[in-house]
Amino acid sequence: MRKSICILFFFTFLMNQKPLAQINDLPGKKITHFSISASPVYGFVFAHDIQVKNTAGTVVTGVEIKLNRIRLDAEAKHYARKNYNSGFTLAYYHFSKGFLGYAFYSSYFIEPYLINHKKFMLGLVAKAGLSYNSNPYNKITNNQNYSYSLYINPYLCLGFNTSIKAGKKLRLDFDAMFNHNSNGSFYHPNYGINFPTASLGIVYDLSKVKIKNVIPSEKFVWRFDVMPFGSYKTISLDKDHFYWVYGFALQANRKIGFFNTVNFGLEWVADLGSKKTLEINGRSNLDYNRAGVLLGHEFIFKKFNFSQQIGVYAFNQNPYIDRIYHRWGLYYKFHKNWMAGINLSAHRQVADFLDFRVIYSSYR
User: Fold this and answer.
1) One domain, residues 253 and 334
2) Domain termination residue (choose one: 213, 235, 268)
3) Which of 173, 192, 213 is the last residue in one of the domains?
4) How far apart are CA 246 and CA 296, in angstroms?
């Protein structure tokens, strides 16, 4: 399925015959310039917890193909001040220790440029997607793998990309990324895989553009969100049963530029997995509910929002959970006032739960 989507995008780009020379003649149109890149990738697994100490020394090798969509029109330059890149990636990574297997990654990325010159560009890259991991934990055939226990897992990545002009249609890309894989404690064991990578690749200019009418951007200073969410997960002390997690959040977002908002939020979480953990440890007198305060940032685009937040529990009686936590979210906007998406909550390097949420937004 992923291969078919990749081929579809590639041929769509090739069939568009609009030359780049025409872009200045259409200042009122949305103009997107396409290129494709291929990069060999090298990295290593960061053994972030004693439970995954056996992953230390694992070398990661692979290849990534990236389909770039750079906005060149006047509207994009007006609200972004600079051009920006977004698109899709497909990657294959091989882990040198056999119990981790290999993985295929499919993701959507956004790349606002921090430096944007004709011969040199530097961008901040954020990716979110899914991975297929080939060798999950099995208590009989693969009991060394405490990093993941499912074949399909969420994938997050953050890093920097540098692009240098190397010819009329060629550029050199160098990127440094920090990659994270886990299932959000949906199923145990789930200590995750964290692996920094670096790559040096070639970008080929397809000399193709797509031109269509501009859809006006949402204009607001404040956005207020109401977010019910829910999920379920297993716990390390009871891997055979699932426990519900549900909650509610309120959030205020202040827009700064077109791409960015900063936010402040409040949330309540009822974690029945936490309740079971307290019962097993003889501490059922403690409350399994939690309430937190969050501060964060959000990249905002036409249809997708990518959120990063740091939180502190104002109320938490569970001694097995850190007071400080962080959240990562990807949301799709399907209506002016409605979004839906996923959000990963983690304590340090360990995922707590992956939730699904519906968001109602009002604007000021």
Assistant:
1) yes
2) 213
3) 213
4) 21
pTM over 0.85: no
DSSP assignments along 76-87, one per residue: HHHHHSS-EEEE
Strands 120-133 and 222-235: unpaired
Asked if residue 52 has pLDDT above 50, the reply is yes
- Domain span at residue 350 reads 222-363
Say whether the peptide bond before residue 27 is cis (omega within 30 degrees of 0). no
pLDDT tens for each residue of 155-214 = 989 999 999 999 989 999 999 999 999 887 778 888 889 999 999 999 999 988 888 776
Res 7: pLDDT: 38
Here the contacts of 136-145 (C-beta below 8 Å, separation 24 or greater) are 137/189, 142/99, 144/54, 144/99, 145/99, 145/100, 145/189
Question: Could you tell me if 83 and 77 are in contact, meaning their C-beta atoms sit under 8 angstroms apart?
Answer: yes
Give the strand pairing for 289-300 and 260-271.
antiparallel
Rg (CA), the chain: 22
Query: The domain spanning residue 290 has which CATH number?
Result: 2.40.160.20
In one-letter notation, the amino acid at residue 13 is: F
Residue 140, classified by CB atoms within 10 Å of its CB into exposed (0-12), middle (13-18) or buried (19+), is exposed
CB 278 within 8 A of CB 105: no
The DSSP code sequence of 196-220 is EEEEEEEEEEEEEEEEEEPPPPPP-
Number of domains in the chain: 2
